[in-house]
Recover the amino acids of this structure.
């Protein structure tokens, strides 16, 4: 650590909080090592449960390849994030905060955009995860009947003859009559533009789960990491079993992987072709997969809470990436191998409610084993929710400390937990939960909009690495990524923009524009903080974090016009991709 210096030329090891592993009151606590961050990030592999059905329904036999390519891209990008994180041992909040420090020299508005987009990309994991977990719990407590259920068959045998309607309508009537009333109950429901909203049973179950996660997070990062270590083991091991055991028992069914062509249309088993519509569906799969596979970058969200940030930062993201590389390739491959296209496009798989049961059924072992695995999948979702609340709340906290977001978010409690940021997360996600629980269309609209923010954040941050190399070349780096990795990261930044421009419309025609509008909302938020609360001045700590002494020194822009040209190129690529690729 002695090689890392700040703008005052004092080695970081001389700072009492880093040397002793403690922090002053009112700050985050230095209480974990890289293993703590690894366990907090161990909820990321469970994100495969969010969209494995949706991606399969849109890409068919390409699904396993989509997940694999996306995960490889995410792993390569993570080395770029490891470098920029090492520049800021006193910051929390993740890669977006580190990237914003590069862009602030060139635009006051672009820098907070990075932080904001990362937050509204991560925070819906709370509501989306709770909605899926609630559907699993509902399935266990009040199972949904279908046309093949014995109860439906008996009902048709006794009452079907008296009904003057078609066989299909008789079956629908039987399913409606025998379905538990709690599944259709709603305290309130309405439609808001492209989405629905419902305060149904799933909403209230999901809200209870969210409050339970908040209670654990309230204890601070050390308590969260210790809790997630045990839950993580209960989740990672079964996910590995689900990925391996079916392959060992049943082998590989190559028919489910060939031919490698897109579907002719979403949620239809007929194979398509590599035409513009087919490429659009494939790019739509890459777009939504990125929201899950890139997510392990949250492991560097806790730099300010590492006892030894110089050593822990790289290890946290590297080993979290290895875990995700295994599970994000293995689980979707086995899922497709066992179900095939016809199984993957089933409605219960597409909306996520039947994914856990399908994965458990793949392992076999009877109802007891199947129910146990379903419960472990619920734990997996809770783990991902905890990961999201820990990371997104720290993004809000650091954004407030750095002067991007309102001041009230910079408060922490006696355990070093950013409680006001956590409450903001919670209240925002209760509103989103009501939308996510309404129907599958609303669920994927929220997912697509949040991922637009995630792609914008990744674009800005992958390009921030070379800006840091130019403007902060004199600053020692605990980890220095190979130059070729930074080049690949900059290239992937534009590839990701193609995914968004072409693929967001696959999930909802309004998703791209709603995502851009949500991103633009940071403008009034930042202007309120910067010009009204702070009088147009950044906090003093901002300049030290940038390794400059004054605001005047921050005005030195060694990269010249390159950052601006990069932004313009990104907008052009987005618009061309959106125009060219059509369903």
């Amino acid at each position: 650590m002695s090689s890392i210096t700040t703008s005052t030329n004092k080695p970081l090891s001389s700072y009492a909080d880093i040397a002793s592993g403690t922090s002053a009151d009112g700050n985050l606590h230095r209480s974990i090592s890289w293993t703590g961050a690894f366990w907090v990030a161990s909820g990321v592999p469970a994100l495969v449960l969010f969209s494995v059905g949706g991606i399969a329904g849109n890409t068919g036999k390409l699904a396993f390849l989509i997940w694999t390519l996306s995960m490889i891209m995410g792993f390569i990008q993570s080395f770029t994030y490891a470098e920029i994180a090492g520049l800021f041992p006193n910051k929390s909040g993740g890669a977006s905060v580190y990237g914003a420090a590069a862009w602030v020299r060139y635009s006051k508005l672009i820098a907070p955009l990075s932080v904001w987009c990362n937050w509204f990309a991560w925070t819906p994991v709370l509501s989306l995860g709770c909605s899926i977990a609630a559907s699993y719990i509902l399935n266990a407590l009040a199972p949904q009947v279908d046309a093949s259920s014995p109860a439906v068959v008996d009902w048709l045998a006794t009452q079907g003859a008296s009904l003057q309607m078609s066989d299909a309508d008789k079956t629908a009537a039987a399913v409606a009559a025998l379905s538990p009333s709690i599944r259709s109950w709603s305290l309130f429901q309405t439609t808001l533009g492209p989405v629905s909203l419902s305060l149904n049973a799933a909403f209230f179950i999901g809200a209870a789960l969210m409050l339970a996660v908040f209670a654990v997070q309230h204890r601070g990062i050390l308590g969260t990491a210790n809790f997630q270590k045990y839950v993580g083991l209960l989740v990672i091991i079964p996910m590995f079993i689900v990925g391996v055991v079916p392959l060992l028992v049943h082998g590989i069914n190559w028919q489910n992987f060939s031919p490698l062509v897109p579907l002719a249309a979403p949620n239809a088993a007929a194979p398509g072709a590599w035409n513009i519509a087919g490429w659009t569906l494939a790019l739509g799969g890459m777009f939504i997969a990125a929201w899950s596979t890139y997510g392990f970058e949250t492991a560097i969200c806790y730099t300010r809470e590492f006892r030894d940030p110089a050593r822990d930062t790289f290890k946290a993201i590297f080993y979290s990436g290895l875990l995700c590389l295994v599970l994000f390739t293995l689980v979707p491959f086995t899922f497709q191998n066992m179900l095939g296209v016809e199984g993957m496009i089933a409605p219960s798989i597409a909306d996520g409610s039947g994914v856990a049961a399908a994965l458990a059924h793949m392992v076999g072992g009877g109802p007891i084993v199947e129910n146990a695995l379903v419960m472990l999948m619920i734990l997996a979702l809770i783990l991902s929710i905890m990961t999201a609340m820990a990371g997104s709340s720290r993004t809000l906290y650091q954004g407030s400390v750095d002067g991007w977001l309102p001041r009230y978010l910079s408060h922490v409690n006696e355990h070093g937990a950013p409680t006001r940021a956590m409450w903001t997360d919670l209240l925002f996600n209760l509103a989103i939960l009501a939308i996510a629980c309404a129907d599958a269309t609303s669920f994927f609209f929220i997912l697509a909009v949040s991922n637009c923010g995630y792609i914008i954040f990744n674009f800005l941050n992958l390009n921030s690495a070379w800006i840091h190399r130019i403007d902060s070349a004199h600053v020692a780096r605990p980890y220095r990524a190979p130059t070729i990795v930074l080049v690949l990261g900059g290239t992937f930044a534009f590839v990701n923009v193609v995914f968004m421009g072409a693929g967001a419309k696959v999930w909802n025609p309004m998703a791209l524009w709603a995502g851009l509008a949500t991103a633009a909302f940071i403008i009034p938020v930042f202007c309120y903080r910067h010009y009204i609360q702070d009088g147009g001045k950044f906090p003093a700590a901002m300049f030290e974090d940038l390794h400059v002494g004054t605001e005047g020194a921050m005005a030195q822009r060694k990269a010249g016009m390159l950052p601006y040209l990069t932004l313009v190129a990104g907008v052009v690529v987005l618009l061309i991709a959106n125009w060219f690729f059509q369903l």
Summary: Residues 221 and 250 are 42 Å apart (CA to CA). The chain has 24 helices and two strands.
